[in-house]
Structure formats: structure tokens, C-alpha cells
Amino acid sequence: MKLYSLPAHKLHKMLISKEIKAEEIINSVIERIEEQEPKINAFITKTFDMALACAKKTDGLIAKNEPIHPLAGIPISIKDNICTEGIETTCASRILQGFIPPYDATVIKKLKECGTVIIGKTNMDEFAMGSSTERSYFGPTKNPHNPDYVPGGSSGGSCASVAYGGTICSLGSDTGGSIRQPASFCNVVGLKPTYGLVSRYGLIAFASSLDQIGPITKDVEDCAILLSVISGFDPYDSTSIEVDAIDYIKVLKPDVSKIKIGIIKEYFDGAEKDVVRCIMDVISQIEQEVVEISLPHAEYCIPTYYIIASSEASSNLARYDGVQYGLREEGESLLSMYKKTRSKGFGQEVKRRIMLGTYSLSAGYYDAYYLKAKKVQTLIKNDFDEAFKKIDLLISPTSPTPPFKIGEKIDDPILMYLSDILTVSINIAGIPAISIPCGKSNDGLPLGLQIIGPYFSEATILSFAYYIEKLAKSL
Ligand code: GLN
């Protein structure tokens, strides 16, 4: 077994028994990156020297028989919209090229305290707007299972890097599905936590009321370890919630037989046959009680999400004016400098969202679009509240289709937006959900199963995911 292919919990055991050194893990991952990157393009920046220096510190502790954290010496890749002190952070946008943050995001600070090793910054759709990682200034990322296909997005670089062994785990961000959908396309585990559970301090904002950072890992156990590290209250994030930190590994319950499961009727109706077959195969094996649940406002999720997300994005992205960060294109006046900088700095999709958001927030249309979307948001939240009165967790496919071909949806924004149809509602409601591998399509491409729970039900979601992971592997 190559070290790059093992999950963190196994590597940790090998480290503390002195079977391997942290430096060997890093070298294994670096070798793999060098071999795969010309084909996959998952990384924007690589931090190999820093990584080796950091791993040596862990090796020093082990040599002195000092205790180490389960993530010490373990490589992690970081989506390039999370600020890392001294390491360029671009959001895959030309407008931020050359921006070197003077501080670490809270999640990065926490990882460094554990001795986790940052191996590089990963490719993404520009400003996390997209579902295929084709919208990056640094070129598309390819799916490691078949490079003719997209890895999903916007955290496509993070998920692809975990899938091919360019890292052991990764951090992504999820505003409407950007952790779960690429996790599903790349055959890895991806969790979008409850809004407020993980600090957003240092996450470059796309749509602040929906954005959450979350773990991307090789298995559910690693996901629990990583979530335990990054979650918890942060006074630097005013939307962070004061809940006690939980060790999710300790609460991974072996017995999940009492959990009541609902399957979302509307989420199976539009999904491709292959996808439905795979999920139903797993569901037919579970011992729990399964009931059908309806979410009556499901059809409004996509328009609601794209109005709220674009409105917030248009406001958040106003700060890129050529003065404070990255790119600046000189002009004859202040206004022309703004125009030139933003015209050159932003890509097509980001411009589309800024225009859409500015329009729906404008005086004449605010009530008709933004305000209406906020009202529908309440209806969507209520659908979930009603469902969770009857059941503990909901199951659905993560994506209505298997991975699609590079270029297939790039010229049709609506078609691209529809690939988030099963994930955006979770961000609209602010609840948590995980995507775990669930078999292959007829073409041999990965498929994912989504498990959704009420606020702060991460422990239940992870326990059930742990159980399903074993079941799916045995099928
Ligand atoms: N694909 C969705 C979008 O384009 C979601 C992106 C995300 O979660 N960051 O907005």
C-alpha cells in the first residue's frame, strides 16, 4: 500500500508505532503530485518546502516519545479561497493574483496547532462560483477517475487532490454544494457543516449567509477527526455559534439501528436512472425504518439560491476595486481604473453573478426578487423542520447525474446551475449534510449519497455515514 492512498487514522497509527516517519508521508504525496498534476491540475500553489519542515517537527516529537495529535504530520490541501499567512491566496481569480494574506483563517490556525501539514492550495471555480472547476483563471481541474470528465465544483481541486493521493485530506467551502457535489464526482467524503459550526474568519466571502468551510477526506472516520479540529466558537466570526467543541470520533456510534430515515421523494424524481439505482441498492440493505418524505417547495430551491447567492456576491465582491488587493489596471480617472481592473480581473461567470445580484438588489426590483427569495427561504426551511419532526435523517443522491464531460455544460449556465438541484436547499436551510461514495455509474464513474440532518446533528450524520460506508463497500 502506498502511503498517499491511506487515510489519516491509519497513518497516525503507523506514525506513533514508529513504523513510518511523517517525512515519508510527505514525500509519498509530493511524488504523487508530481506524477499526476500535469494531467489533473488540482493545485494552484504547492508548499513542499514548508510541508517538509513541518513534518520534521512531528518526527522530532515522535522521536522524543511526546504525544502527537491524530492529524500531526498529515498532509492537507486547502481550497484557494481560505486565507493562509504568507501563502498566495487567489480564489482562482486574476483579480487576486499576487495577494498574500497577512493572517491565517481560524481553521488554518487550528490545523497548524495540531501539526497538520499544508501541502498546497487547490484549484476551484473562480470565487467558488461553479459546479465543474472549469471556471478557474488557472485552467480546469480534471476528474482523476477519468480526465475527460469534470471533478465537480467548486471545490474540484480539493476533492481531486484527495482522490488521486496528492494529499490525505483537504478543506473546501460549500455555499450551494461545492464540497458535496465534487466529493460525489471524485469518490471521496465531503461534509457541509451546520451554518455557524465552523468559523468563516479568513474564508473569502462569496455569499456570507450560506458559506461554510468543511472537511474532504478519504473516509468517514477522517471526516470526524478533521471536523473535531476545525469546529467550535470563534469570536472573530459574528455568525459563529457558541456550542461546546465535540470530539466526533468519540461520538461515532456503532449502533444506529434506532435512527429513522426519510427518503426525499422530489430528489429522486429528476435524478438519472443510474443514480437512483445505486442509491436504492444501498437503501434496500439498511436495517432502519425508511419512509418517504416530501419537501413541497423543492422546485423553488434553484431560483431562490441563485438570487440570494448572487445578491450577496455582488455586495461582497465590491471590495475588489484595484486599490486594496491584487490586480490594478491604471486608468485616466478613478472610475476608469475601477472599470478596467474589474473588467480584466473577473471572469465571465463572476461578472454574470455580479450583474444578476446587482439587478435583484436594485431599488425597483428588490421586492420582486431578493425579498421574495428570502420569503421562499423560510418556506424551504419549514419543509425541513416539518420533515425532521417525523424522521432523524434524510437520504438523497448528492447529484442528479454522474460526473459530466469537460465542456458539456460550460456554455449553458442554467444547465450548470441545475447540477446543484439536490444540494442548494441544505445551505438555504443552514443545516448539515454529507456526501459519501455509493458505487459507480454504468460508465464506471463515481456516484455519491447525501445524508442530511437537522441543525447540529453532525454526530448522528457521521455515525450513520460510517454505517452506510461499510454497507456500500460490501455491495
Ligand atoms: N455551484 C454552486 C454555485 O455555482 C455552488 C457553489 C458553492 O457551493 N460554492 O453557486
Structure notes:
The protein has about 475 residues and is of the alpha/beta class. Helices cover about 40% and strands about 10% of the residues. It is built from 16 helices and 11 strands. It has helices at about 10-15, 20-40, 50-65, 105-115, 155-165, 180-185, 220-230, 265-270, 275-285, 300-315, 335-345, 350-360, 365-390, 415-420, 425-430, 460-475; strands at about 45, 75-80, 115-120, 170-175, 190, 210-215, 260-265, 290-295, 395, 435-440, 445-450. It has an 11-stranded mixed sheet with strand order 1-3-2-4-6-5-10-11-9-7-8, sandwiched between helices. β2, α4 (about 105-115) and β3 (about 115-120) form a beta-alpha-beta unit. It binds glutamine (GLN). Glutamine (GLN) binds near residues 129, 154, 174, 175 and 420.
**For the largest beta sheet, what order do the strands appear in spatially?**
1-3-2-4-6-5-10-11-9-7-8
- Indicate the percent of residues in helices: 40-55%
The structural class is alpha/beta
From the N-terminal CA to the C-terminal CA, the straight-line distance is 23 Å
Oligomeric state as shown: single chain
Residues in β-strands, percent: 5-15%
CA gyration radius, whole angstroms? 21 Å
Mean of the pLDDT scores? Answer: 96
The number of strands is 11
Low-confidence stretches: none
Largest sheet: 11 strands, mixed
Q: Catalogue the ligands.
A: glutamine
Question: What general outline do the C-alpha atoms trace?
Answer: globular
Order of helices and strands: HHEHEHEHEHEEHEHHEHHHHEHHEEH
Number of helices: 16
